Amino acid sequence: MSTLNVLVSHLPAPAVEEQLGLLRRIAPEARFVVAYGGEPPDFELIRDPHKALLADPSLSGPPRSFQSYSVALELILERWLRDDPEIDSVYLFEFDHLILRGGFERALLELAARTEADMMGKCCVERNGTNWHHYTRFRNDAELHEQLRRVTVRSDPGRIFGTLGNGMWLRRAAVEAYVAAAPHPRCYGEVYVPTLVHHLGFNVVDIDAHSRLYEPVRWEPEYSGAELARVRSAGATFAHPVKDAALRSEALSWAAAQA
């Protein structure tokens, strides 16, 4: 299996290039590209050829509002997957999601094979009947439910799922089916991606239910230096969120030196 690892970033060009360079040292067998969500002039400054401009207005909206992954998945399909039939899975992660071990692809692929997953994510579970704030926002959303009734192959078109929208793993077939289900409603990606993938007939899996791989991956708070040092010394493969630039650079440099 061949995985395309897509870094989503809006950071200045030098930071993007540094992160890509360190990731390739950490996992030299892996394939990394960047979907850049910053401004076009900043995109042009990125010298790495494995890049694409992610022009999506939803990404610049209020935090946890209506940010979508639909444009990102369309871009990934058109820019990389269509011309490379060898790619059969996508790992989508943001700049503050650290990869600390070179064996991360193998760990994800083994978990996907064991669980027969088509999509995996952090806390990727059904949210009906819960007080998860994104579920309560969209549980009665007319456009979302109209879309689900239109495309679902399931007996219950009202099931809603959720996941942390960072570090999502998807099979190629799930990406292709997702893109083909357009037009997409205006819906927050952490709700919409796993929900649509489920209703299109794919198997959605919660990583935490089957593995300790994502224990150091959380919504918040941000990692401190001491905390990050503890999890990486304990052998963590991933850590999120690490937004501090100096801390992120130091941790990835450390991981690259261990590779």
**Beta content:** 15-25%
Multimeric state: single chain
What's the CATH topology label?
Spore Coat Polysaccharide Biosynthesis Protein SpsA, Chain A
C-alpha Rg (nearest Å): 18 Å
Tell me which CATH architecture applies here: Alpha-Beta Complex
pLDDT under 50 segments (min length 5)? none
Mean pLDDT, rounded to whole units?
96
Label the overall shape.
globular
**Extended strand count:** 11
What series of H and E elements makes up the topology?
EHEHEHEEHEEHHEEHHEHEH
Q: How far from one another are the termini? A: 22 Å
What is the structural class?
A: alpha/beta
| Helix proportion | 25-40%
- Adjacency order of strands in the biggest sheet: 3-2-1-4-9-6-10
Number of helices: 10
Largest sheet: number of strands, sense, barrel closure: 7 strands, mixed
CATH class: Alpha Beta
Number of domains: 1
Question: Overview of this structure, please?
Answer:
- The chain has a single domain, classed as Spore Coat Polysaccharide Biosynthesis Protein SpsA, Chain A (Alpha-Beta Complex).
- It is of the alpha/beta class.
- The model has no long low-confidence stretch (mean pLDDT about 95).
- It is globular and about 50 Å long.
- It has a seven-stranded mixed beta sheet with strand order 3-2-1-4-9-6-10, sandwiched between helices.
- It is built from ten helices and eleven strands.
- Strand 2, helix 2 and strand 3 form a beta-alpha-beta unit.
- Helix 3 packs across helix 7.
